[in-house]
Design brief:
- The radius of gyration is 16 Å and the shape is globular.
- It has one domain: Rossmann fold.
- Helix 1 packs across helix 2.
- It is α/β, with parallel strands linked by helices.
- It has a six-stranded mixed β-sheet with strand order 4-3-2-5-6-7. A three-stranded antiparallel β-sheet has the order 1-9-8.
- The structure holds inosinic acid and magnesium ion.
- The site of inosinic acid has 16 residues, from strand 5, helix 3 and strand 8.
Length: 177
């Protein structure tokens, strides 16, 4: 089936304004602290790059990345998460913030949070740009959330459909041609 991008759900302006707020909030919460920001590849990279630049210099941020792939097709997760690339550094005794593009069923994030906790960090929090609340199958504490969105498949600003459209500067819904 062929798909194409459809309506704009969130504009560049919407994203920038909300990300500025999230950055300030993270700045207040971690002022004077070291924070390891963990980006989940590939979907979170565009969001992460804007988010960390919205956090004031009073937070001592370092970056690490993890790549995961979930078995299933491109629009659904199976809940079985495979680590394709692990973190470069240790997070033991560190404050950690996991940055993800979207929480859908919650399976990916709940798995990752559990895995991170086993490494005995000082704290683990989650920041997700988008939240499809209706679709949740398992509970995840999303400490910093950009936007709740309806149950529609979205692309752009890091999010893909079969690898496409990550580079779009706004968030769009997709529809069948
Ligand atoms: P979850 O494990 O069901 O919460 O799924 C999270 C992952 O599914 C995200 O990291 C995305 O890669 C993918 N995903 C879920 N919904 C969408 C969407 O609307 N657009 C693009 N990717 C999505
Ligand atoms: Mg994806």
């Amino acid at each position: 089936m062929e798909y194409r991008i459809s309506d704009v759900l969130l504009t560049e302006k919407d994203l920038a304004a909300r990300i500025r707020e999230l950055g300030e909030q993270i700045g207040r919460d971690y002022e004077g602290k070291e924070l390891v920001v963990i980006g989940i590849l590939k979907g979170a990279v565009v969001f992460l790059s804007d988010l960390v630049r919205a956090v004031p210099p009073s937070v001592d941020i370092s970056l690490d990345f993890m790549a995961v792939s979930s078995y299933g097709d491109s629009t659904r997760t199976s809940g079985i998460v495979r680590i394709v690339k692990d973190l470069d550094g240790s997070i033991k005794d560190k404050d950690v913030l996991i940055v993800e593009d979207i929480v859908d069923t919650g399976l990916t994030l709940s798995y990752l949070v559990k895995m991170m906790q086993e490494r005995q960090p000082r704290s683990v929090r989650v920041c997700a740009l988008l939240d499809k609340e209706e679709r949740r199958k398992v509970h995840v504490d999303v400490d910093y959330r950009g936007f709740p969105i309806p149950d529609k498949f979205v692309v752009g600003y890091g999010l893909d459909y079969g690898g496409r459209w990550r580079h779009l500067p706004a968030i769009y819904t997709v529809e069948q041609k």
